[in-house]
Automatic annotation (TrEMBL):
<dbReference type="GO" id="GO:0005524">
    <property type="term" value="F:ATP binding"/>
</dbReference>
<dbReference type="InterPro" id="IPR014818">
    <property type="entry name" value="Phage/plasmid_primase_P4_C"/>
</dbReference>
<dbReference type="GO" id="GO:0016787">
    <property type="term" value="F:hydrolase activity"/>
</dbReference>
<dbReference type="InterPro" id="IPR006500">
    <property type="entry name" value="Helicase_put_C_phage/plasmid"/>
</dbReference>
<dbReference type="Pfam" id="PF08706">
    <property type="entry name" value="D5_N"/>
</dbReference>
<protein>
    <submittedName>
        <fullName>Phage/plasmid primase, P4 family</fullName>
    </submittedName>
</protein>
<dbReference type="InterPro" id="IPR014015">
    <property type="entry name" value="Helicase_SF3_DNA-vir"/>
</dbReference>
<dbReference type="InterPro" id="IPR027417">
    <property type="entry name" value="P-loop_NTPase"/>
</dbReference>
<keyword id="KW-0547">Nucleotide-binding</keyword>
<keyword id="KW-0067">ATP-binding</keyword>
<feature type="domain" description="SF3 helicase">
    <location>
        <begin position="303"/>
        <end position="456"/>
    </location>
</feature>
<dbReference type="Pfam" id="PF19263">
    <property type="entry name" value="DUF5906"/>
</dbReference>
<keyword id="KW-0378">Hydrolase</keyword>
<dbReference type="InterPro" id="IPR051620">
    <property type="entry name" value="ORF904-like_C"/>
</dbReference>
<dbReference type="InterPro" id="IPR045455">
    <property type="entry name" value="NrS-1_pol-like_helicase"/>
</dbReference>
Length: 584
């Protein structure tokens, strides 16, 4: 009778298994299509495993030539052979502490206990283990092995020491976790490594777009159909953890993704993380004689136009590997604004406009995070006292940036700086490290009266094919820079050209005077001012607004203020300076 009951029980069990397996198969093939029954989390994909699935056997991990043996909350690593016996190190977690000991066929050594694992620098534990190993290994051999074991444990820490305690979560927190899984399955979401912005892929645009708390809250309402509290939005945003750098090679256009290294195109792809999009088509066959003619008219030298193309092409590349800062200089209406507006139109969704003087302000660098270019359409003439941030940005150094209502961020800013102005601001830094970074295009032509078309900028920006022609040629010009680098003028030529505009009194002083070792060499203030003025007028350079600029200039050259009696009268002037013998 008992046997009959057992057989009936077995048959019933087999039927239940068949039914359960059938249900699992149906549910898997339908991919949980009953969204309405699942409420807010409808459509959430889940892995369903049969009770009879056999887990795949893990591949053996090797260390020091032998298989690693994983223990419960620990690991056993081979050290060496000694007296026909294999010696191993056992390292285990014991509550909040760690214990280590040597083991061989002779048995186990005494334990060495520590509050820190071997994966971090632990001199005390290392010394204990060296002492316990003195019967079968010397100090150097043991120390080397312990360091290697520590590196291995550091790499495999999460596999060796499992997190065992259950985190008790409220029903609300469990719901947020389920919602996170649902969103993460349905949408492509990445954390930008440069800015730590949360970015969601926009299929209609083919790029990722940044979401702050307010924008993400609106996104949640659209996805779920419900409102969320601020703390709930923050918690959800904090769960996403896939961090990527923006792809350095691909640029999104209206019609495709384009690789700026190979010029190959492809369809938009969420696997390529890019946030920058050019609001034009990639069109290698584009042509516009009108656009070509008008933009070339701005430059008095074809070489300067080629340099401008190279600059714009270089802006498409992520970062600033050549450590350059670009300036368009020239007096009056000479096309600077037009050229800057062309750049702005191309990089409209990845540009900022932070003056160089603001780099030192508390939140001055925040707008540059994640941008490709910082455009300064009208360089202010205020003196730049400190250039450390300029050199750090152009040099690709790590910078800690204070952000309003956010934690400070340490990152490498990838933006390049392009400025335009009638003259440079005065820069107190006179080092080679700064001047070697600067590329200057001097625009000599002016367009006044009848020669000036007040609507030219509008015409060129609305000439879509002309803009596409310009973009293609700019990227082609950049290919040469990528292969050969920038043709650098000498440090003296760059600096000289810059200070002609920013500090003409200093430029004149360096041409007119030389510093001596003798305090007997003396020039009066009047001699200084008159000599510099005559030079500036002759060379059509700006006359300083006040006399302090003349005095500051000769002091920068090395002169020292002093007095001298001339005909019983004390005359103010400068010592250790005399006039050069000019050859012109």
């Amino acid at each position: 009778m008992q046997k009959s009951k057992l057989n009936n029980k077995t048959e019933l069990s087999n039927k239940n298994i068949l039914v359960r397996n059938k249900n699992i198969s149906n549910e898997t093939s339908d991919k949980i299509s009953e969204r309405g029954r699942m409420g807010v989390f409808g459509g959430l994909k889940k892995e369903i495993k049969s009770d009879f699935d056999v887990p795949e056997k893990p591949k053996p991990v090797m260390f020091n030539g032998k298989n690693v043996e994983y223990l419960q909350n620990g690991v056993k690593l081979f050290f060496k052979e000694h007296d026909s016996s294999s010696v191993y190190l056992v390292h285990k977690r014991n509550g909040s502490n760690y214990k280590s000991y040597w083991v061989s066929k002779e048995g186990e050594s005494r334990e060495a206990n520590s509050k820190k694992p071997l994966s971090v620098t632990n001199t005390q534990l290392e010394n204990k283990l060296i002492d316990l190993a003195k019967d079968f290994a010397n100090k150097e051999e043991t120390s080397k092995f312990i360091n290697q074991a520590g590196q291995f444990i550091k790499q495999k820490y999460s596999s060796i020491f499992k997190f065992e305690k259950d985190i008790k979560r409220s029903e609300k927190e469990q719901a947020l976790l389920e919602l996170y899984k649902h969103i993460n399955t349905k949408y492509n979401i990445i954390i930008d490594k440069e800015s730590y912005d949360l970015c969601i892929y926009d299929e209609s645009e083919g790029i990722y777009k940044a979401y702050d708390e307010k924008k993400f809250s609106r996104f949640l309402k659209k996805v779920v159909g419900k409102e969320f509290f601020v703390d709930e939005v923050k918690k959800l945003m904090g769960l996403f953890n896939e961090i990527k750098e923006e792809d350095p090679n691909h640029v999104a256009f209206n019609n495709c993704l384009m690789n700026i290294e190979t010029l190959e195109t492809r369809k938009f792809d969420p696997n390529i993380f890019t946030r920058f999009k050019v609001p034009y088509n990639w069109n290698p066959s584009a042509d516009s004689p009108f656009f070509k003619e008008k933009i070339c008219e701005i430059f008095d030298d074809p070489g300067k136009f080629q340099t401008f193309l190279q600059i714009v092409g270089y802006l498409f590349a992520k970062g600033n590997p050549h450590n350059k800062l670009f300036l368009l200089m020239g007096k009056g209406a000479n096309g600077k604004s037009l050229l800057m507006q062309i750049i702005s139109a191309i990089f409209i969704n990845s540009s900022a406009a932070v003056p160089l003087q603001d780099f030192q302000k508390d939140f001055g660098l925040q707008p540059l995070i994640g941008k490709r270019v910082n455009l300064l359409s009208d360089l202010p003439i205020a003196t730049i006292e400190e250039t450390g941030q300029i050199k750090a940005i152009t040099g690709g150094d790590d910078i800690t940036i204070n952000r309003k209502f956010k934690d400070p961020l340490t990152t490498k800013l990838k933006c390049k700086i392009v400025g335009a102005g009638n003259r440079l601001p005065k820069i107190m830094d006179d080092s080679y490290a700064l001047w070697r970074r600067i590329v200057i295009i001097k625009l000599e032509k002016t367009f006044d009266g009848d020669s000036r078309d007040t609507k030219l900028t509008e015409k060129l920006l609305n000439d879509t094919e002309g803009m596409e022609w310009f973009i293609f040629n700019a990227i082609q010009a950049y290919k040469k820079i990528r292969e050969t680098g920038w043709t650098e003028d000498t440090y003296r030529e760059i600096r000289e050209e810059a200070i002609k505009n920013s500090d003409p009194a200093l430029y004149a002083s360096e041409q007119l005077f030389e510093v001596t070792d003798s305090p007997d060499n003396f020039l009066t203030r009047k001699e200084i001012v008159d000599s510099i003025n005559d030079f500036l007028i002759e060379h059509d350079l700006r006359i300083p607004a006040n006399k302090s600029e003349y005095y500051d200039a000769v002091k920068k050259c090395g002169a020292k203020e002093g007095q001298k009696r001339i005909l019983e009268e004390k005359i103010h002037g400068f010592r250790y300076i005399e006039k050069r013998e000019l050859g012109w």
